[in-house]
Amino acid sequence: MVSDGLLLADKGSGVTSFQVVAHLRRVLRVPKVGHGGTLDPMATGLLPILLGDATKLTAYLQGQDKEYLATVRLGVATDTLDATGAVTQERPVPPLAADDVRAVLERFVGEIEQVPPMYSALHAGGRRLHELARAGIAVERAPRRVRVHAFELIECAPPRLRVRVECGSGTYVRSLAADVGEALGCGGHLEALARTRVGPLRLEDAVPWTVIQRGDAAVLAAGVLPADRAVAHLRAVRLSPEAGRRLAHGQVVPLSECVAADAPAATIPCRVYAGASFLGIGELSAEGLRPLRLVHADRSRPRPVSS
Question: Whole-model pTM?
Answer without folding.
Answer: 0.88
